[in-house]
Structure formats: C-alpha cells, structure tokens
Write a structure and sequence with these properties.
The complex is a heterodimer of chains A (311) and B (249). Chain A has helices at residues 16-28, 42-49, 70-81, 93-105, 207-221, 229-233, 264-267, 299-310, and strands at 2-6, 31-38, 56-61, 86-90, 110-114, 116-119, 122-127, 132-138, 143-147, 164-166, 177-183, 196-200, 224-227, 254-258, 275-280, 293-296. With 311 residues, chain A is of the alpha/beta class. The longest helix of chain A has 15 residues, at 207-221. In chain A, α3 (70-81) packs across α4. Chain B has one domain (3-245): HUPs (Rossmann fold, 3-Layer(aba) Sandwich). In chain B, 27% of the residues lie in helices and 31% in strands. Chain B has six helices and 13 strands. Chain B has helices at residues 38-52, 70-79, 95-109, 128-136, 189-196, 236-245, and strands at 3-7, 10-12, 34-36, 58-65, 83-88, 113-117, 140-150, 153-160, 163-170, 173-177, 200-204, 216-222, 231-232. In chain B, strands 9-8-7-10-6-1-4-5-11 form a nine-stranded mixed sheet, sandwiched between helices. A two-stranded antiparallel ribbon of chain B has the order 2-3. In chain B, α2 (70-79) packs across α5 (189-196) and α3 (95-109) crosses α4. Chain B is globular. Classes of the chains: A alpha/beta (311), B alpha/beta (249). At the A-B interface, α3, α4, β5, β7 and β8 of A face α3, α4, β7, β8 and β9 of B. The complex binds flavin-adenine dinucleotide (FAD) and adenosine monophosphate (AMP). Adenosine monophosphate (AMP) is lined by residues 7-9, 37, 39-40, 43, 63-65, 93, 95, 98, 116-117, 119-120, 123, 125-129 of chain B. Chain A: Keywords: Electron transport, FAD, Flavoprotein, Transport. Chain A: It comes from Acetobacter tropicalis. Chain A: Pfam families: ETF, ETF_alpha.
C-alpha cells in the first residue's frame, strides 16, 4: 500500500505544492515515496527527504528529464507504477501535463484536482468552476490523482531524513523537444503559497497602475500580486499571475480584489480564501457577494489611502 | 499538413450559473443553454487559421455527445471547419473513453495534428488531450498560447506556472489550447448558411465497439459551502480596523 508522488520543482527548489500533496497522500493512507525527476536534482531530493511523512525519495537524474517534459516523465512513472497503489501529483502545470498520460497508459481514469480525501479511493473535487462539488470513487486498480494545492496544508519539515534511492530512466527517443523558456522573475512571494494576495482587474486600466497603485500595497503586506483574466489579456500583468478557473487557484489568509467584477471563473480561483476584501466602484459588482469586507469607491483614491493608513 | 482534427464538446454555457439538482445527482442542465466549450472554440479557430495561412488543407470537427451536439458542429463549420463527425451517445463520457473514441477516429482519418481544448468547463478534468497523445504515442504540447508550423515541425508556446515554455514537436502531434491562443471569430450569416450544406456524419457510439463502462462512480454532487455574508465598510480606516480585528494583518 504505497503511494508514488511526483515532486514539482523548477530545477532549483522544491515547490511548496509538493509538501501540500504529501498531506493529501497522508489522508489517503499508506507509505509515501516521492519521485524527484530532473537533471542535477540531488539537492532537491534532499529537501524532499526532509518533508515529514515521506518514507522514501526516488531520484531520477537524467538530462532527458531536465525540463520535466511529459513523454519521458510519463514513461518513468508508468515503469515505476507497477509497485504502487496510487500515482499522484500536485495539480500544477507539470502534474496536469504528465499524469493523464500515465493514466491512459495504465488504462485507468484520473481523478483531477481533488480538494478532499474521503477514503483511499474516494475524493471530493470541484466541477463547473467550483459551482458544484463532486464526490467520486475510483474503481480502477491504480489510482491516478492530482491534488489542488490550496486545499491542503503543507506537511512540515521532519526531524529525520527519509532514505534517498536512485532510479534510472530507460532510454527511448522522445519526440517533443524543449526549445526555450521565459520565466517571470519576481521578488514577491509565490502566488499560490502567499499569506496575502492583492489582485488587480480591468479596473486598474494599465500596466503602470499595477506598478504604481497595486505594488505599494503588496509591498506593505509582503503580499503576492494576482490578476484577473481581463487584466492579463490587456497585458497589465503577466499570464502566470492569473487567478481563476483556468489560472492559479489560491486560498490565502487575505485576498484583496481591486477593480475586479467577480465573474464565476475568477471566483473559482479565490473564493476559498479565509478573508476576502473587495474594492470596486460598482456597488452591484458580484465580487461583493463573496467579500467579507466590501469598500465601494474609486480604487485610485482608496488604494493609496489604504497604503497611507498602513504605513 | 493535410488534415487537422478538432474534438469539441458541448457544455453548459460558460455564462450560465450552474445549479446543483436537489437530489444531489448532478448539475441541472434541463432547459439550460448549451454551447461549445470555450477552449474548443479556440481550438477550431486555431485550426481554421492554420488552414487560412495555407498550412493545412482540411479541418475536421468531431464531437462525442447527444444529437443536439450537431449544433456546435454546425457552428464549427460556420467558423470554417470543412466537415464534421458526431459520435452519438446520450451518456456522459469520461475523458479516458473520449480519448479512446477519438483515437478510433484518428486511425480512420489520419490527421497530422489534433487540437483539443485544454479543459472542458463542465467536468474541469483537463485530461483528454494528454490521454489521446499517450494512446497514440504522439508528442503533446498542452496549454498552448502560440502555435507556429515550420517545415513540418510544430513550435508551440505553452503557458506554464512560472511563465512560458516553447517546445518543438514533429508531426503528428496533439496540442491543447489555452485562453490566450486566439480570439474566436463571430460567424457571419453567409457562413452559417454555407455550414448547413457541409457534411455532418453521424455514427452511433455502439458502432465503435468500445467498452463504455465508467471508471469513476459519482457518489454525489453538492453545492459548495456558502460563504457567510460579508458587509460593507464605510471607509479605509474602518477596513484597516476590521482586518486587524480579524487577525489577517
Ligand atoms: C472559459 C473561461 C475561463 C475563464 N477563466 C478565467 C480565470 O481563470 N480568471 C479570471 O479572472 N477570469 C476568467 N475568465 C474571464 C471572466 O469571465 C471575466 O471576463 C474576467 O474575470 C473579468 O475580469 P475583471 O473583473 O478584471 O474585468 P471586468 O469584469 O471588466 O471588471 C472590472 C471591474 O472594475 C471595476 N472598476 C473599474 N474602474 C474602477 C475604479 N476606478 N475603481 C474601482 N473599481 C473600478 C468595475 O466596476 C468592474 O467591476 C474566464 C472566462 C471563460 C469563458
Ligand atoms: N465528449 C467529447 N467530445 C469531443 N471532444 C471532447 C469530449 N470530451 C472532451 N473532449 C475534448 O477534450 C478537451 C478536454 O476535456 P476534459 O479532459 O474533459 O477537460 C475538450 O476541450 C475537448 O477538446
């Protein structure tokens, strides 16, 4: 009864999503092995070994795994999967890309984006952009599951390191080739693990307003910056900041929606936040229906005023 | 390339607020507006643009669903797809079964490229394209925000958690669309009329000879926990006071 968990990392650091997926794995029950695949990922494997609840870390170090492309990683997971009752991964862009490939190869249905474990084979997952919660039971021999990070707390660092073991990737000619990557660099905390998220929408009106109005508030609170789809589409903010059904799902202690109307697809990404604040000039904006504290007015006056009040 | 296949799904219209049925068996679709899944509309648009650029000869749309799904196939043809196929079934289809049915069609049609939506906004599964690629042993590029074809190689820019990534794929390949790949066109009346005359081939799912048994038992569907009602604050200082009292700042 052992679960294999694919670790999420960017080549340098272990994503916080992995420690959250460990919590979901603990809820499923059984031993937990974490697979760290990549190139020169020894240090990441050491970090994974220290996450409380992890029983063993498998490291697959191979240049072919450098960018965690779906074909080689799926091959690796399919090969290892015979020894496991479940193969799971955080529902990050990496996990979402790779795990269905593993499921199809093993002829099983994946359970996507779970928010709660009811039993080792039964899970809750949101459908219809979170407007309904489905309870599903998998009848397949192997469970393939992706985990919604915002629904689980990160497993803490443990006091003893789990053993680390090498596994090898059988060589094969994979077809897709990595060309390049443009990663957004930011001094801010990561959106999906930040305690406070300050998000801007179309109401901000420009990329400049993200810098001059939103950023100072985020600065005060050491908060992450998020955005609505409309703001991303208008190039006010980069795509990796999009919160919502098709962007990132966040559940911080405090979410501040500024100049965001509150379309269901946006709510899908933030309505499980502990406290929600909305600042919007339209008193009928749907965002106020989910906001704990609503402030009606012009964001260009209210946000600088808020920064001054905090300063 | 000769042919692009685009699987499209009919779903509850993205602008309609879904309501869970009182008996907890699912979301109420009766009498509701059903539309093409927004990501599938983007997939059709992309295929048609590749054809318009002279990079593809034929675009075939396919849907697995009830007779009513002919409507979205006609819409796809009004947008520029050359013909369409419906695999008709009244039962809900899991992504694994959808992928297997699409594979059967791929084997008949031999497309060079299959473009799917990254996710259907009803089940929010985000699986079918990846599963199809695995079943065919084809390369995949999911969550595409740009697609270019150059000497038989596909260059796809993908939206990933940290930003963007670009992959090169030999054909045949599977691509799934993200929202920013393109903005789908509106169908003109003449094109809607023309689409009525295009070929729409219907096959009952039983003819496919596939085991359709669901692998996931849906034990129940419930509405999300409602948030307790919030309130308006009069000004910034009241907001700061309340946030401090709530212990979040
Ligand atoms: C399949 C699909 C997936 C989607 N996925 C996502 C997703 O992941 N995330 C997402 O966010 N959206 C998503 N959307 C889009 C979503 O439906 C909305 O279009 C989008 O969220 C709107 O963004 P917005 O609230 O910034 O813009 P708008 O709806 O235009 O709202 C702008 C708000 O700003 C307010 N405002 C304007 N000026 C001021 C001012 N000076 N002071 C105060 N307030 C002001 C206005 O009153 C208004 O409420 C998706 C849509 C589809 C169809
Ligand atoms: N019944 C279906 N008919 C045609 N295409 C489908 C069907 N189900 C899923 N797809 C395709 O697979 C994509 C992803 O769906 P899903 O994996 O269910 O989120 C959709 O955007 C469609 O392109």
């Amino acid at each position: 009864m052992t679960i294999l968990l694919l670790a999420d990392h960017d080549g340098h650091t272990l994503g916080d999503a992995t420690a959250r997926a460990v919590s979901a794995a603990r809820d499923m029950g059984g031993a937990i092995h974490v697979l760290v695949a990549g190139e020169n990922v020894g240090p990441i494997a050491q970090v994974a070994a220290n996450v409380s609840g992890v029983d063993k870390v498998l490291v697959a170090d191979d240049p072919a795994l450098a960018h965690l492309l779906a074909e080689p990683v799926a091959d690796l997971l399919v090969g290892l999967s015979a020894d496991y009752v479940a193969v799971i991964a955080p529902a990050t862009s990496i996990g979402k890309d790779i795990l269905p490939r593993v499921a199809a190869r093993r002829d099983v249905m994946q359970v996507s984006d779970i928010t709660r474990v009811i039993a080792a084979d039964t899970f809750e997952r949101p459908v219809y952009a979170g407007n309904a919660i489905e309870t599903v039971q998998s009848t397949d021999v192997l469970k393939v599951v992706t985990i919604r990070s915002s629904a689980f707390d990160a497993a803490p660092q443990g006091s003893v390191a789990a053993p680390v073991e090498s596994v090898s990737l059988p060589a094969r000619a994979w077809k897709a080739r990595f060309v390049s990557e443009e990663l957004t660099k930011s001094e801010r905390p990561e959106l999906t693990s930040a305690q406070i998220v300050v998000s801007g929408g179309r109401g901000l009106g420009s990329a400049q307003a993200f810098q001059t109005v939103l950023a100072p508030l985020a600065e005060c609170w050491h908060a992450a910056i998020g955005a609505s789809r409309a703001a991303v589409d208008a190039s006010y903010a980069p795509n990796d900041l999009q919160v919502g059904q098709t962007g990132k799902i966040v559940a911080p202690e405090l979410y501040v929606a500024i100049g965001i109307s509150g379309a269901i697809q946006h709510l899908a990404g933030m309505k499980d936040s502990k406290v929600i604040v909305a600042i919007n000039k339209d008193p009928d904006a749907p965002i106020f229906q989910v906001a704990d504290f609503g402030l009606v007015g012009d964001l260009f006056t209210l946000v600088p005023e808020l920064v001054r009040a905090l300063g | 390339m000769k042919k692009i296949l685009v699987p499209i799904k009919m779903v509850l219209d993205a602008n309609v607020r879904p309501r869970v049925k009182a008996d907890g068996s699912g979301v109420d679709l009766s009498g509701m507006k059903l539309s093409i899944n927004p990501f599938c509309e983007i997939a059709i648009e992309e295929a048609v643009r590749l054809k318009e650029k002279g990079l593809a000869e034929e675009v075939v749309a396919i849907s697995i669903g009830p007779a009513k799904a002919q409507d979205i196939l006609r819409q796809a043809m009004a947008m520029g797809a050359d013909r369409a196929r419906l695999i008709e079934t009244d039962r809900p289809i899991e992504p694994l079964t959808a992928a297997k049915l699409i594979r059967i069609v791929v084997e008949e049609e031999n497309p060079d490229l299959v473009i799917l939506g990254k996710q259907a906004v009803d089940d929010d599964c985000n699986q079918t394209g990846q599963m199809l690629a695995a079943l065919l042993d084809w390369p995949q590029a999911t969550f595409a925000s740009a697609v270019a074809v150059d000497a038989g190689t596909l260059h796809v820019t993908r939206e990933v958690d940290g930003g963007h990534q670009t992959l090169a794929l030999p054909l045949p390949a599977v691509v799934t669309t993200d929202l920013r790949l393109n903005e789908p066109r509106h169908c003109s009346l003449p094109n809607i009329m023309k689409a009525r005359k295009k070929v729409l081939d219907i096959t009952p799912v039983a003819n496919c000879g596939l085991d359709m048994a669901a692998r996931l038992n849906v034990l129940g569907v419930k509405p999300p926990e409602p948030r307790k009602a919030g309130r308006r604050v009069a000004n910034v200082s009241e907001l700061v006071r309340d946030l401090r009292a709530a212990g979040v700042i």
